[in-house]
């Protein structure tokens, strides 16, 4: 990538430390009455039975109500905060074609006037502007007087009340009141500039091993701006990667246009709607500005605490509010991605600054969450697939994937290209040209939501392939098998995916399943027995990337002389059970789960790393940073997103456990086995290798040597002064960073981490103990570090997890209602850590996908959620009766070996069911819908 290449980040956007001159402290909520509710308790006795967890680590807290969320916390619950809680709410513009002229709060009367009214002009006067990321948050918090709102539902004012009763009464009085916001003349819509466009073109080489003629990985993706509403793609030519890429794209288009009778060219347009993620915890925050100490205290519901703290520092550093320290406390939250880099935390900061010394809580109710919470992007998609009629092999595919990002940029740019790079789904494509276009509009802001663009594009591909099979007279699974993406082949970016691709195994299992094998006979029988109903079975299979190309994590593991383990981790529980799985991973390697766990850890004094948080950069820039600062890392820690726990966060956990095993427990066990006359029991087995060591159920054994209790081995490790504590940092750029360290006993050692700190046992010699000067640890300076080449930023992805779903439906020809009779899914997730957690993710994901396919819908513009009138009384979510809760089955492929890594599956489990249902409806009624959701009124119209 050259210096002009736009940032390819999915999740990262900070360009450097915005906190210059402001100390930042980030921690899990502690102290006061909230401590027991928000700090993870240690696992109780009996939590593990037979080496497997009996419950989630947080199960008791969940079922007893002891585990609460950020939304449940008030100022009085936080140690050191005053208890005079104030409250705030926003007034939003519901029209985007008129100038904002001010407010009319006369309806409130004198008694309910706000204690503080904040307008755009107040922010300007006080030096408060959107942090310098106009490519992310936009350029306005509140609409200035005389300007047209950028988007429907854009806030125009912030109202702060010092007491709850007046706040609640005022909020009720102003809700749905169209006279509160005063508008002036009618204008044109005023959305920001469109967000960006990328193009991913690939033409294969002469063989599997040969270089591609063109690919984004080898050459580059193509980036461009806009001419009007259309991308201004560069001219084709031979000079430069963009020109050569456009020439390749034109050659693909020409080949499709010139296709003869030997090929089927299927062109279709699809639409996927905007939806609300409907996370049960709406956006909220509580902020106290202590002017006396210069401390800005934050309590936020966020997936990225570090980012919120940095953004807050950037917000206040040029303002009239002197801030010397930001103290952010993070509690439990959940958001399906929608609490990742949202504007709401910054609005909470504004409320706190104007609180007059009181903590101010800004918390959406459900109407407000529909109005300004992040949405899943709607997509319009134009696709073309060229297939050889004789062999059924795909020759080429093109797609133009346009997402509507609404009135703030947010993640729209990256959502568009992640969707485009996933569009190939499970198929190998010799030639492909995928355009990703992110448009701005007056719609409500869309951002990071579960599926991240891939649900939309892969659903379209699966519907397209299913229709192609019908037109070719082929079995739909057989056609998929003829074109399935196999291990060693390259994706549409020109990269070879990690590990073994097992899509073919899943397809073969699906083809043999009774739902598929007997579908025609069952259709005839069902419809004969149920007049007025049509029966159908649909199939779809996808594989979802997981990761961002810039995943960073920290983990710390210690063992005391009694063999008790303590795990501290940056992982923050978002609902999928990450705390449970990380603890279980330790047990798999060390034979005992940690007695003490602490998650959501954000202070790591033993890790004095420095970062500009610029993981997507040029080779020269990265080389320069490393040459100037040997402790530099591209990223300190990642936000807690849906699919990074099992693989990426788990890599840190597993690495810490292995280092503790190899450098403390292994030499300590050898020391015990070597005691006695003539070298003890070990002497005759002196060739025993470390990989022969076995740890299980608190026993250390292996290679025929006498079993040792873990307590004895731990005590020996402490006596010998071995590294009984390990803290490490990891970084992945579609490949793991490695570094070399000088370690006692092994010399220069290469490990799959980029930073290491050790804590030695009490028996360590004085010179070794003297090294523990960094937060009580020995920070081991790396001898060399090997960050993956920045060229891998062009990869798009290399890690995939696949899933297929068979869906059986009945369609009522009178009402148009679709009843899901049963569904069967097949998942490949590597090695399961906690099967029950995988099952939970599958069940929840399927329900979410069913809602997207058949029920959930938000109008984009007028009449949509920006008008503030939407709630669950209008927005239909699937219920138990809609998801065939008692008739769903799942098969999970066993791992190829016990050493298979786990895969990130939290997103893929919701996708395949969407096109499977669309294909099932087509099988039932003989009509293919190209727009989602497929609702009863649409079916009635077709069948009329």
UniProtKB/TrEMBL annotation:
Where are stretches of biased composition, namely Polar residues? 610-620
Domain (Aldehyde oxidase/xanthine dehydrogenase second molybdopterin binding) ranges = 510-883
- UniProt-recorded Gene Ontology molecular function terms: iron ion binding; oxidoreductase activity
Coiled-coil region list: none
Q: Where do the Aldehyde oxidase/xanthine dehydrogenase first molybdopterin binding domain residues begin and end?
A: 258-484
UniProt cross-references to InterPro entries, sorted A to Z? Ald_Oxase/Xan_DH_a/b_sf (IPR036856), Ald_Oxase/xanthine_DH-like (IPR016208), AldOxase/xan_DH_MoCoBD1 (IPR008274), AldOxase/xan_DH_MoCoBD2 (IPR046867), AldOxase/xan_DH_Mopterin-bd_sf (IPR037165), TAT_signal (IPR006311)
According to the record, the residues making up region (Disordered) are: 610-635
Q: What is this protein called?
A: CO/xanthine dehydrogenase Mo-binding subunit
């Amino acid at each position: 990538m050259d210096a002009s290449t736009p940032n390819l980040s999915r999740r990262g956007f900070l360009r450097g430390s915005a906190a210059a001159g402001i100390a930042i402290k980030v921690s899990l909520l502690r102290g006061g009455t909230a401590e027991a509710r928000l700090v993870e308790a240690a696992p109780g006795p009996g939590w593990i039975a037979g080496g497997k967890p009996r419950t989630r680590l947080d199960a008791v807290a969940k079922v007893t109500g002891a585990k609460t969320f950020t939304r449940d916390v008030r100022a009085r619950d936080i140690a050191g905060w005053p208890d005079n809680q104030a409250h705030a709410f926003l007034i939003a513009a519901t029209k985007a074609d008129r100038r904002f002229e001010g407010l009319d709060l006369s309806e409130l009367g004198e008694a309910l006037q706000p204690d503080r009214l904040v307008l755009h002009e107040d922010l300007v006067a006080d030096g408060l502007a959107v942090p310098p990321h106009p490519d992310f948050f936009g350029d306005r918090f509140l609409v200035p007087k005389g300007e047209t709102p950028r988007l429907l539902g854009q806030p125009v004012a912030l109202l702060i009340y010092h007491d709850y009763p007046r706040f609640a009464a005022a909020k009720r009085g102003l809700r749905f009141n169209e006279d509160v916001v005063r508008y002036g003349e009618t204008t044109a819509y005023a959305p920001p500039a469109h967000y960006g466009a990328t193009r991913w073109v690939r033409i294969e080489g002469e063989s599997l091993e040969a270089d591609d003629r063109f690919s984004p990985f080898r050459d580059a993706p193509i980036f461009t701006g806009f001419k009007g509403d259309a991308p201004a793609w560069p001219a084709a030519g031979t000079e430069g990667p963009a020109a050569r890429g456009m020439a390749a794209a034109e050659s693909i288009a020409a080949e499709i246009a010139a296709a003869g009778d030997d090929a089927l060219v299927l062109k279709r347009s699809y639409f996927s709607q905007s939806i609300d993620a409907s996370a049960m915890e709406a956006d909220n925050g509580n902020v106290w500005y202590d002017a006396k100490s210069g401390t800005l205290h934050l309590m936020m519901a966020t997936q990225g605490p570090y980012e919120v703290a940095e953004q807050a520092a950037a917000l206040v550093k040029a303002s009239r509010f002197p801030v010397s320290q930001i103290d952010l406390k993070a509690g439990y939250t959940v958001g399906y991605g929608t609490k990742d880099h949202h504007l709401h935390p910054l609005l909470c900061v504004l409320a706190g600054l104007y609180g007059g010394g009181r903590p101010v809580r800004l918390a959406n109710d459900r109407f407000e969450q529909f109005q300004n919470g992040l949405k899943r992007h709607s997509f319009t998609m134009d696709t073309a697939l060229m297939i050889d009629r004789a062999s059924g092999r795909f020759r080429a595919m093109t797609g133009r994937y346009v997402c509507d990002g609404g009135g703030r940029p947010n993640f729209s740019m990256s959502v568009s290209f992640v969707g485009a790079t996933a569009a190939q789904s499970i198929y190998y494509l010799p030639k492909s040209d995928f355009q990703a276009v992110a448009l701005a509009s007056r719609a409500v802001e869309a951002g990071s939501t579960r599926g991240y663009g891939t649900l939309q594009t892969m659903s379209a591909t699966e519907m397209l392939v299913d229709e192609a099979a019908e037109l070719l007279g082929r079995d739909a699974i057989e056609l998929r098998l003829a074109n399935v993406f196999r291990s060693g082949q390259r994706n549409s970016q020109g990269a070879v995916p990690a590990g073994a691709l097992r899509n073919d195994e899943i397809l073969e299992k699906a083809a043999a399943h009774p739902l598929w094998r007997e579908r025609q006979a069952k259709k005839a029988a069902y419809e004969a027995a149920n007049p007025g109903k049509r029966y159908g079975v649909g199939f779809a299979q996808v594989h979802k990337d997981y990761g961002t190309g810039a995943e960073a994590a920290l983990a710390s593991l210690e063992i005391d002389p009694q063999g008790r383990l303590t795990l501290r981790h940056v992982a923050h529980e978002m609902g999928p059970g990450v705390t449970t799985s990380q603890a279980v991973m330790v047990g798999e390697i060390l034979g005992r789960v940690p007695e003490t766990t602490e998650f959501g850890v954000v202070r790591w004094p033993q890790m004095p790393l420095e970062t500009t948080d610029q993981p997507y950069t040029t080779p020269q820039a990265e080389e320069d940073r490393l040459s100037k600062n040997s402790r530099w890392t591209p990223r300190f820690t990642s936000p807690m997103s849906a699919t990074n726990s099992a693989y990426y966060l788990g890599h840190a956990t597993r690495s810490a456990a292995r280092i503790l095993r190899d450098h403390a427990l292994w030499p300590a066990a050898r020391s015990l086995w070597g005691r006695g006359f003539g070298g003890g029991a070990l002497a005759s087995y002196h060739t025993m290798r470390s990989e022969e060591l076995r740890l299980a159920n608190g026993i250390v054994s292996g290679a025929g040597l006498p079993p040792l209790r873990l307590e004895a081995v731990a005590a020996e490790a402490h006596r010998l002064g071995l590294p009984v504590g390990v803290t490490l940092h990891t970084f992945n750029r579609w490949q793991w960073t490695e570094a070399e360290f000088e370690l006692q006993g092994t010399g220069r050692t290469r490990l799959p981490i980029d930073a290491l700190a050790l804590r030695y046992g009490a028996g360590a010699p004085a010179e070794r103990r003297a090294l523990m000067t960094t937060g009580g640890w020995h920070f081991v300076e790396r001898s060399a570090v090997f960050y993956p080449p920045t060229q891998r930023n062009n990869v798009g992805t290399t890690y995939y997890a696949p899933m297929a779903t068979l869906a059986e439906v009945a369609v009522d020809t009178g009402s148009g209602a679709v009843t899901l009779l049963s569904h069967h899914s097949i998942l490949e997730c590597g090695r399961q850590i906690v099967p029950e957690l995988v099952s939970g993710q599958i069940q929840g994901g399927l329900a979410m996908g069913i809602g997207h396919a058949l029920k959930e819908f938000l109008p984009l513009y007028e009449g949509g959620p920006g008008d503030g009138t939407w709630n669950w009384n209008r927005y239909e979510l699937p219920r138990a009766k809609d998801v065939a809760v008692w008739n769903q089955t799942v098969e999970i492929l066993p791992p190829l070996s016990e050493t298979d890594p786990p895969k990130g599956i939290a997103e893929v489990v919701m996708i395949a069911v969407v096109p499977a249902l669309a294909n099932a409806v087509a099988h039932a009624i003989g009509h293919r819908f190209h727009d989602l959701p497929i609702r009863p009124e649409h079916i009635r119209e077709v069948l009329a």
